[in-house]
């Protein structure tokens, strides 16, 4: 059974189009392949690491770790946005 979060459903089309725009021309296939590989790895690592964290440190501490990951991801998205804006 495949479960997708609301965030994945809302963001996947935008992330997919971002990868397509970045890889215009001959490298489009490479960009899309890397995007698919990254998406697949995130599903494997994300689900497994969440369950491992719950097993080792409990639910409450896992939420704090996930909040830290969310903050880090938000900061990295801001850095990416600035880098893309500098390109033109």
Provide key terms for this protein.
3 helices; 88 residues; globular; mainly alpha
Indicate the radius of gyration in whole angstroms. Answer: 16 Å
Query: How many strand elements?
Result: 0
The span between the termini is 42 Å
Share of helix among residues? Answer: over 70%
Overall, the morphology is globular
State the assembly state of the protein chains: single chain
Structural class based on helices, strands and sheet pairing: mainly alpha
What's the gist of this structure?
With 88 residues, this protein is mainly α. It contains three helices and no strands. Helix 1 (6-22) runs antiparallel to helix 2 (28-57) and helix 2 runs antiparallel to helix 3.
Molecular structure report:
It is a single chain. This protein has 88 residues and is an all-alpha fold. The protein has one domain. It is built from three helices and no strands. It has helices at residues 6-22, 28-57, 59-87. Helix 1 packs antiparallel against helix 2 (28-57) and helix 2 runs antiparallel to helix 3 (59-87). The longest helix has 30 residues, at 28-57. The protein is globular. It starts with 5 loop residues before the first helix and ends with a helix.
